[in-house]
Amino acid sequence: MTALNIQNLSKVYENGKQALQDVSLRVPEGAFFALLGPNGAGKSTLINILADTVRASSGSVQLLGHDLLMERAWGKRHLGVVPQEIAFDPFFSPREILHFTRGMYGQSRDEVWVDALLERLELAEHANKITRQLSGGMKRRLLVAQALVHRPKVVILDEPTAGVDVELRKRLWDFIRELNAEGTTVLLTTHYLEEAQELCDQVAIINQGRLIASQSMQSLLGDVASSSLCFRYEQAVELSESQEQALQAFAARVCDGVLCLDLQHEGEHSNFDTAYQAARQCFGAPLDTYMRQENLEDVFLRLTHKDAA
Ligand SMILES: Nc1ncnc2c1ncn2[C@@H]1O[C@H](COP(=O)(O)OP(=O)(O)OP(=O)(O)O)[C@@H](O)[C@H]1O
Ligand SMILES: [Mg+2]
Known about the structure:
alpha/beta; 2 domains; four-stranded antiparallel β-sheet; binds magnesium ion
């Protein structure tokens, strides 16, 4: 079953800015899905369309088989959204906000679940303060609690950990992971790519309003990520034009003074030996040599830069 099926979604804002262009995306039920992209890529625009705070210019979205853009009331009951922008009525307390929010979805009062959320999001001791008195990180955690208070099947989090300190961030992710393990579908945006790599099983990348990748994390890191052979010398490497040309086949580049060459793999074989010899011919014997596998951040930077070029 598909949790979210987004088809040909486009958005042109009133000022003519095209923020989304023909984006099609499928989020399987039960997924832990990362929607990634640089600042201004269109992530929040997409999420705000799902949350009904921005109107799509064209395209369609199905939530668990229902037309989300038409069946808004149904959608709101089954979707929990943590928006990027924080906005609360400053004079209510977290506890009151959580009870009101359940009421708004037509659900009965549930002291046990509200207490559990306050506890898990480490807001219990602030539960009765007025929200104006909460810190930035506390308000963000309250947004998360608010998105979960009606126990939605699909949860969408737009940078839920922005401004949340390291330890709390870890515990927040533990909680979201538990909800996912119990069957909640999770879609999130974040600029912490290391966290996305660890948490998510699916990943999509948007750049300048267009989708440039959408696949399982494993296949992105297996198929698209490449490995490099790195050479460290006594002195930081500087590539002359002729050396760059001699090593062109390996896309030679210098990272933090270390020479890095692309390795190509074909089945059991790789070009390790030829890359190694070529580097020695240019720079002599290195102090040490090591392999480096690209991580999500490397792939992200490569794909978004290539796309922008
Ligand atoms: N209300 C608006 N009117 C006009 N343009 C807008 C509006 N909201 C966003 N934009 C523009 O649309 C583009 C996409 O913005 P969006 O907020 O969706 O990006 P994002 O991927 O969420 O970025 P970030 O990582 O910074 O949160 C940007 O160029 C932004 O300036
Ligand atoms: Mg955003």
